[in-house]
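Consider a concrete sample entry:
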Amino acid sequence: MRLPMTLVLLLACAEPSFAQAAVLYCDCGEAAQAPCGNGGDTPAQIGGCFNSTGFKAFLDSTAPSSPSVTADDLVFETYSVPSNVFGLYFMSRGEVRIPFGDGLRCVGGPNRPVFRFAPAFSGTGGVLVHGPGLVATSRARFPIAGHIDAGQTWRFQAWFRDPGGPCGSGFNLSNAGAVTFTL
């Protein structure tokens, strides 16, 4: 039996490379925390709440990504997103955990603005990608409060359209990752 590509990617990501650049958090592990009971622990799968693919969207980074503002080479990938949908990455210095759409919003909070990057398309593989150039983009598109600088910790998450999602809101989110940037 041949496994679907999203399952193969998730199994290969049991020890995510992203952990070297960030601390992963906001796994939708308990059904009680999920907006419509679409959470749950799956040993080989961390991520947001279950979406229309039957999996959790998983935020990761690709090698050779680093938290260096000088290199500006951090690249985010989010797997197990529905095929051919738009999504976007957003960031904040704050951390929350509140139901939002079919998932949990884990970035933002009181007095912590959220900054959105340009939309991305998941294509037939169901993967959203953003970067490199996050630092340069933050400085070109966002007000000073949204500029990424060395010594700061920023939290990142992916939002995506999910028209057939389990809760019926039409969108969902990935897990999140906190990156402390270096020079």
